[in-house]
Amino acid sequence: MRSKLHSYDWLLFDADETLFSFDAEAGLQRLFKRYGVDFSATDYRHYQSLNKPLWQHYQAGQIDAKTLQRQRFAGWAAELGVSADELNSGFMQAMADICQPLAGARALLERARTSAKVGIVTNGFTELQEARLAQTGLRELIDVLIISEQVGVAKPHPSIFEHALQRMQQPHRERVLMTGDNPHSDVLGAQQSGLHSCWLNPKGEHYPLATPPHYTVSSLAELDQLLASPQ
After folding, report:
1. What single Pfam family name could you report for this chain, choosing any that match (predicted)?
2. Which residue in 63, 78, 99, 225 has the fewest CB atoms around it within 10 Å?
């Protein structure tokens, strides 16, 4: 039987495409405009052909965050005569400038804090996560912020969840709910660590894994309604 949402002591959330929009193409266009480059749809497809495999390697623990950040911009760095680190930092700032909380995010976090503590567990990078939380004013609503770049491992690896639980003073695992849009890193990662899970599925996609999440919601507003519903 599923636990009532307001019986949880901790509500954990992914960041990108769970609490925040993440339009990488718009961020890259903003970045390269500073260098006089009209970043096209073809450029974006090529970037993603490099970036997506790097993220898969990162989440599998095969490369570290710095390697991912540098390799995805190595070609552009050589072409523009700047460092890959400069381009990556510029991209992080561009994303912080344009990324906004998804609809219902603030209301959900405010309601969550009336009955539980709130945390973020993200595979995103420190520079972006901290800037975005500060700029949107959501940092004050977060009790614990866990960033894979700082921990040294990424979701779904159990170590990042163990690190989070340690920071959370080791609550009962069945009283912790992890919500995210990625079945593999968020839902499976939570399940492997004994946490309850909620899949944010705004596109109505088929769940791809064997063990379903405890909850599936189509929006943050739906999750907010579940939090508000009586037992």
Report:
1. Hydrolase
2. 78
Q: Where in the sequence of the chain do the CATH 3.40.50.1000 domains occur?
A: 5-20+100-228
Per-residue pLDDT reduced to its tens digit, 111-125: 999 999 999 999 999
Q: Write the pLDDT tens digit of every residue in 204-224.
A: 999 999 999 999 999 999 999
- Amino acid identity of 164? A
| Residue 227 pLDDT class (50, 70, 90 cuts) | confident
Look at residues 122, 161, 163 and name the one whose alpha carbon lies nearest to residue 142.
122
Q: Which of 14, 16, 181, 186 is catalytic?
A: 14
For 5-20+100-228, CATH number?
3.40.50.1000
Instruction: Please say if 14 is a catalytic residue.
Output: yes
- State the Cα–Cα distance between residues 229 and 111, nearest whole angstrom: 12
Compute CA 68 distance to the chain's CA centroid, rounded to the nearest angstrom.
16
